[in-house]
Amino acid sequence: MTRGNGARPASPARGGEWRHGLRIDPTRTDSEEFLSALERLDELAYAPHGLATPRWALYDCAELPGAVIGLCADGDGLPEEARAALGQQGGSEAWLPITFLMALPTLRPELWLVHSICGLAEVIATPLPDLRSETMRLAYDWLGVARVRGVCQWTSDRLALHAHWGPLALEAAWLPSHDLPATCVFQYTPEVVPAPARNREACERFALDPGDEMALRMLHDEIEEGARFDVIGVSASHETRCVWIERRAVPGAPS
Amino acid sequence: MRLDRAASRSGCPLVNLDVANRSLADLEPFVVATPEVMEHLDLAPYGARVDEARRFHPLRLETTQMLDRLRRLDELAFGSEGMPMSGWILIDGAGLTGAIFGLGVPAEAAPPEVGRVLGIGSDREGFVPYSMYIAIPSFEPATWVGHNLASLAAAPELRGPLHGLGSLTKALALASFRARHQIGAAQWDSPALRVHTRLGPLALSSAWTPAHAKPWTYTYVADVTDTTLRHLARDPSGRVEYLEPTRFIDSADHRAMQRLQKDIERGTRWCIAGPPESVSEGGAAGERRQRVGLALFPG
């Protein structure tokens, strides 16, 4: 299974028209099998972190107001391990989800909340291509997303997926009421701009250890006090991960 | 109890509504929403002005206590239903996309029984939410998906003084959100149907919903107008026109729901005609049963 060869876009969403792909209406009973597999994929990706989406929330907080968009594949074309992971024992002729993300509209037509990006490749041992970035690209294109608000754990590899699109303007760096307080919230414009081409007046760049709780709290305090920061990249090795942060100049503030 | 003292008032100074339970007049409205949502809202729906201090930004540290108390309120309403809301859903699925509107009191004004029910003990700091309604804007203009209505009236010891709090909260919230249509999902055996039908007949999008954790869930769309909101809030000037039922669903009859779902999927447009009737207890202890009248969608 590769992009454009067996993978099809799928979107469980109430209402809306899609230009192509498999469209699934969650208010219909024939959506059950696909959505069960989708729930299973979410569980495999997020349950280890305590962030699995309960089925009621998938329906009430994602499928009804927004959309779950991803890629799917013919079950028979997937490795046995993949089918088993999605709850399909033996052969399956059904289309099964292999990636998805949840996108919710906001009162600003251009701004969408995007979260719960996941793919089969990250939860099974059999090598599969990681199509999560492709899924983001397709979702942003279909929905006409001009601005993304993202929510992501600092230690998650999904932060790099978002950062690929450009600088992430941080809105929060520490959320005590979240199940995992070391979570950040940010906005970005989904257009890939090579880093050297950015004409930006940075005051300061520094590396942030995403596991350093005190540093995250201090960063959040500064954001609440009016400082502006962008995530400009994530670098990871086998043992360490660091997030590159840029402090932006605040208009009108003394330098 | 503060609520009882408030009952002696002759009017309802809080809202431009004639609310039957005057004791609710002591409650203050609050909103949790991002600034861009906040600027869209009516922050004085029916005259119930949301004070600056009661406008909470979901990402600020000072809101932590409020969010924790809202989670406790949610647990009270949905914990026993097996559908509690985790912290990340409260942030992603409410605070960052839609809004949480509710009523409550400053902590120093909360009676001890409220503190016990919410598990905040004698904490006199901050604001104590008595109710909340959560909704997310959808694709369609002025259409909000409501996914949580919770109130302290779910606690037996507070049910009497807080009678009508859930419906008042939902009415004020939808007015604040400037909603013209509201989408929701609920279970056929849930008493919340009595609240939802105060908005009038509910057009059904589904009657049996395997996509939900509880397939005996129906999905509905309600029209929201000033008169239906007033009816929801139990203001005598409110009015809705219920329909004559031609079919009934017993909340314990899953096969009937599945038959109705097939009808809906074939294109027949059904709606819930009006409030449900309670069915006398006859089954297992604690079983809730109600009979719901249906009608073909007018036109």
Helical residues, percent of chain B = 25-40%
Task: Summarize the main sheet of chain B.
Answer: 12 strands, mixed
Span of the ends, CA to CA of chain B: 50 Å
Average of per-residue pLDDT values of chain A: 86
Q: Which strand-content bin applies to the residues of chain A? A: 25-35%
Going across the major beta sheet of chain A, what is the strand order? Answer: 2-1-3-4-5-6-8-7-10-11-9
Please tell me what the overall shape of chain A is: globular
Radius of gyration of chain B: 19 Å
**What structural category arises from helix and sheet content of chain B?**
alpha+beta
What would you say this structure looks like, in words?
The complex is a heterodimer of chains A (255) and B (299). Chain A is α+β, with helices and mostly antiparallel strands and 255 residues long. Chain A has 6 helices and 11 strands. In chain A, strands 2-1-3-4-5-6-8-7-10-11-9 form an 11-stranded mixed sheet, sandwiched between helices. In chain A, strand 4 and strand 5 form a beta hairpin. The longest helix of chain A has 15 residues. The N terminus of chain A is likely disordered. Chain B is an alpha+beta fold and 299 residues long. Chain B is 25% helix and 23% strand. In chain B, strands 1, 2, 3, 4, 5, 6, 7, 8, 9, 10, 11 and 12 form a 12-stranded mixed sheet that branches. In chain B, a hairpin with a 5-residue loop joins strand 4 and strand 5. In chain B, helix 6 packs antiparallel against helix 8. At the A-B interface, helix 2, strand 5 and helix 6 of A face helix 3, helix 4 and helix 9 of B.
